[in-house]
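A common beginner's mistake is to predict each chain separately and then try to dock the pieces by hand. The better habit, illustrated here, is to supply every component at once so that their relative placement is modeled jointly.
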Amino acid sequence: MTEVLALLILLSVVGAIVAVVTPNLLYSVISVGVVGFLLAIAFLLLSAPDIAVVQIGVESICLVLLLRATLGREVDGGAQRPLVGVAFAVALVAGIGLFGLQVFYEFPEFGIPAMERFQDAAAATYLATGAETTGAPNIVTAVLLDFRGWDTLGEGTVLFCAVLGATAIMRRRARRKDDAS
Amino acid sequence: MLPESYPGMGTFLKTVIRWMKGPILLFGIYIILYGHVAPGGGFGGGVVIASAFVLMTLAYGEPYTLEFFSRDQALTLACLGLLIFVGLAWAGTWAGSGVFFDNLTAGAGGHRDHLFLTALEIGSGLFVSGALFMGFSVLMGHHEEDEE
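With all components supplied together, the output reads:
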């Protein structure tokens, strides 16, 4: 189980690297899609089918959009970057990576939920009382729509603003009052 | 981006998709309505419904799909879903104990227990399907105003 998961993650890392390195834009888009679908399988293995369903759906739509946007479009390698910029980027990534490594020492063992370390964690309360207090047979729904309803509302608002922004930007001409005549 | 006179894909694909679009829409509705029991819910189901229309756009071209499900309808659906969601959240403040997102039907007994959550799922499902298709359609770059 853990080995399969490790293999999936390794493959998706390889896919991500290929997506960055390959000079062909189409290969790059396909590699990004591979990463997304591998992640969906990983979510399924980790018993999170809810996230897997959304991941597959969003990934398919994103892949189609990206393919449509990139098909038949030539992109050259770009101009040579200045050495200072590259050095700065590498230093930045290395620094953030070092901080990130520290986080891993604080993690609980793989597969042990955080609420076992903190007895009064909110998640423990959700699991213990979720079914009675919300009436939802599915604990994920209870958390998403009841305990964390604000969060879902925020997600919806973000999506709505994104779509409104896209609509406003992609409009060919602005609507004016004197335009109607 | 799709060219203005996109003829659509081959006959095979068009035929298969004509059969498939109903089941895909039905599957999306099923995921939304059963979200409180099985994995799924408003977001997943909304994405499935939107993907059915994306499939239609790719197979038949945009004018055909927009006749079926126009951008105005998509935006209306999105607004309606968000209004249902926010309205239900406010309903707890007015009718319940004064708490935002108060679960009104919890403890009602039997199947009425999760009516509130199902209504929230329907709201978010309508909203996500409308908003996603709207975003897709707008980003594909056709201009509805030009065709008038």
